[in-house]
Amino acid sequence: MRTGFKLHRAHYGWIEVFITIILVLFALTVIVPMCLPLLFVFKTQLEYSYDPWSLPKHITVKNFLEAWDAIKIGEGLANTLLVSLGVVVLAVPCAALAGYVFARYHSKVTEVLFYAILVCYFIPIQMVLIPLYKFNIKLGLSNTLLGLILPMAAFNIPFWVLIYRSFFHTLPKDLGDAACIDGAGHATTFFRIMLPLASPATTLALLLIFIAAWSDYFLSLIMLNDQKLFTMQLRVSQFLNAYGVDRMPRYAAAAIISMSPTVILYIIGHKWVIKGTLAGALKE
Amino acid sequence: MVQSIQIFDPIKTKKTAKRNRAIFVSLCIFPSLLFLVMFMYYPIVETFRLSFMKSSGLGQDRFIGLDNYRKLFVSEEFRAGLVHVLTWAFWSIVIQLPLAFFIAFSLTFYVNRVSKPMRAIYYMANIMPSAITAMLGKFVFSPNNGILNNLGNQFGWDWLSNMDFLGSERLAFWSVFAVATWAYTGFPIIYLMARIEQMPKEFKEAAELDGVTGWKYAWYILLPNLVYPLRILAVLCTIGSLKLFDLPYMMTTGGPGHATVTLGISLYRQGFINWQYGRASAIGVIIFLLSLIFTIIQFSGKKEAA
Predict the structure, then answer these.
(1) Contact (CB<8Å) B142/A23
(2) Which of A26, A113, B66, B279 has a CA that sits 20 to 30 A from residue A256's CA?
(3) Tally of CA atoms within 13 A in the half-sphere of B157 that contains its CB
(4) Are residues B283 and B179 in the same domain?
(5) What is the pTM of this model?
(6) Which of B225, B282, B217, B220 is nearest to B81 (CA)?
(7) Using CA atoms, how far apart are residues B275 and A99, in angstroms rounded to an integer?
């Protein structure tokens, strides 16, 4: 007979082992395609076509150099970095300010405006694409990085207004009142007291907006025509079209080069990435 | 003396306080609002307007009523796109959600040293930019040199080495679909895991005391409590399918023929290759309306559940 509250996990037995094995297999399907290029990248084309699956005999870095040249990834990285930083710098302060006001200054007007902003979160980007493109031409922003940054910042704002609003809701109301009694104005209260307290939300916003801007493909494809301005994702897809897989070692090198910034960022920040993603998803 | 009275005039202080507050509030909201009016509200209205116009960027726009929509529904490309995204939505719900449920349940139920770091691994594919996912997809599925064909060669399995994963009308759709499943199942997994972990601990303890085994626990206790989150995921899957563009476009550019055309690809072709802004806008409106319908279905479902 089992004795009440002592719950131990031993009785799962072989089922647990079996399921863990299945889980490991699934995890491998995720990981293996990302790691497999490593097997090919150090080979010459000849070595590869002769015996693709063996371990490389001598290590050559020529493929990396070739892939680097083919994608011109240095320029691409710089553009992507510029775009991502631009979007973050524009979107995060806007979202923080608006979120704060929606959390702390209730009135009928702010309520209506909040929903007016939130609704935009549900608009698919395809719905606004054509006018945005024409609008950019009218403003003289077509084919500039700024013309990409501005709409991308706008797309990121609604979601983070929502997150900031619910975050500022969780802070005790007395804090603001106390500051007010001490003679701090609205702006001082926000910048000196509230914003520092919201730093967890700000960290998530910085990271996730950065990743979103970093990963974008569709909008960049439409807004940028000039090869020089191409972001990394555009260059990757260009490489796919131009070279394809006909020379596997070079292809593998290109995959590794373009994958590594994201992988490194994810290894460092995966906890925040997952936390931030869930913070949004669980709000509904 | 008189001056000091003026300063502490309560009515006046209250007025200035009110004014200050209003100024602060509007200053805070203004930037966000400006962004969204310029890059959301204005384009939304404009898309609706354009969808009733013949507009090609050159010359004057001309009002043609519902002609764009009519033309779309007889065009093979658009119809293929519509069928594909709906098929895609159906299969991604049928495949991704049970898979995600199984994994999320297993990871939360059998907590051990192996399963603990797996949440991060499963979510990893999700965070990859779509260009890189497409790159890895081509790496696996490309003809001749791709990993799968190559493996077929290696083992002398002709059926595998002869499969043209991206080039044949029969297989291309499913190859892209497989890559998408690889990339996007991570989100339902971490989302369901979070939902399961939010449930009261007593659920699991009581089940264990009653000797309810893993499967029965998943089926009779977890699943009924996850109906609403699963419904949200289904809607997200559907809306994601409607918007689908990056992966099929980069892997097959919609081909061969119309085999992997989606609504997004159809929009892109109409708008930026044929320069038919009006028709492209009409596709945008259709995508918008369809996702609106599915979102409304979700919210009405919520009321029923409550």
Answers:
(1) no
(2) A26
(3) 9
(4) yes
(5) 0.88
(6) B282
(7) 39
Query: If you count DSSP H runs as helices and E runs as strands, how many of each does chain A have, helices first?
Result: 15, 0
Domains (ranges, CATH) in chain A? 9-50 (no CATH), 72-242 (1.10.3720.10)
Domain-located, residue B62: no
Burial profile A196-216: b = 16 or more Cβ within 10 angstroms, e = fewer: eebeebbebbbbbbbbbbbbb
Answer yes or no: do A254 and B135 touch at CB < 8 A: yes
Q: Cα distance from A165 to chain B (closest Cα, Å)? A: 12
Q: What CATH code is carried by the domain that includes residue B259?
A: 1.10.3720.10
What are the structure tokens assigned to A244, written together? 């394809």
H or E, element range at B62? strand B62-63
Nearest CB partner across the interface for B118, out of A27, A123, A133: A27
Percent of chain A that is helix, strand, coil (3-state, to 5): 80, 0, 20
Residues in A closer than 8 angstroms to B125, CB to CB, are 30, 34
Which residue ranges in chain B fall short of pLDDT 70?
A: 1-12, 301-306
Instruction: Give A9's DSSP letter.
Output: G
Provide the domain limits for residue B9: 2-35
Question: Please, what sign has the CA dihedral across residues A107, A111, A117, A121?
Answer: positive
Q: Render pLDDT for A84-134 as a digit per residue (tens, 0 to 9).
A: 999 999 999 999 999 999 998 888 989 999 999 988 888 888 899 999 998
Residue A147, classified by CB atoms within 10 Å of its CB into exposed (0-12), middle (13-18) or buried (19+), is buried
